[in-house]
Amino acid sequence: MNAVRWYASKNGVPRRLPTVRQVKLAREQVLNVAGAEPWTYEGNGGHLYTTNDLPILVKHVSVGAHGKTYRNSHCVQEFANPVTRADLHLYPEVDGNKLCEARHAKRWQDEVDAALAAPMARSTTGKDYFVNEVALANIDMQGTVAPVMVARWFIRAGKLIAKAHPMRLTLDGVELVIDAREQKTIEIPLTSFVLNIDNLLSSHTQAEWRLPAPDKIH
Which superkingdom is the protein from (predicted)? Predict the structure, then answer.
């Protein structure tokens, strides 16, 4: 850095250049807001590709320097920018045998921790449905509405769909039981969800649907 300052001064750059310490502090602030640790790999065919840490990228969306939350941070602006937002893919996609990008791969769909892979989906009515939370949804074509535990979110044919575990009431009606058997997992479009966990925390809603509190899970 000192060599750069010397070279700049010899080429007529004004002397009011930042000090080495000032540059380091500025760099640290930038890394806190938007920094990541990319890894570069060499594929079997000799090509190079680079990956980033997804949790760090997600964190930068809402957390800026010094751990403060910024609604107007540059990362948030990228999400709000209609030009760049169209190229940001936030959910795994099931598209037959198509495998063009990471979002088409089974790892994102099935292996990555669901809380990181696609933790939430928002309905057109503004309700947020998080994975590992209870929700009320229409679970079949007959209009049956029942509680489910959301397991994962993914996209198929442009539509958001949840993998969910059915839930049943205990005989005394005071607890919900999760049927976590793989063969019992059901797929539910986001448009079929009725109530989220915030709604189910209401005692009036519990009485209306004859359900226990959503934290009463066996």
Answer: Eukaryota
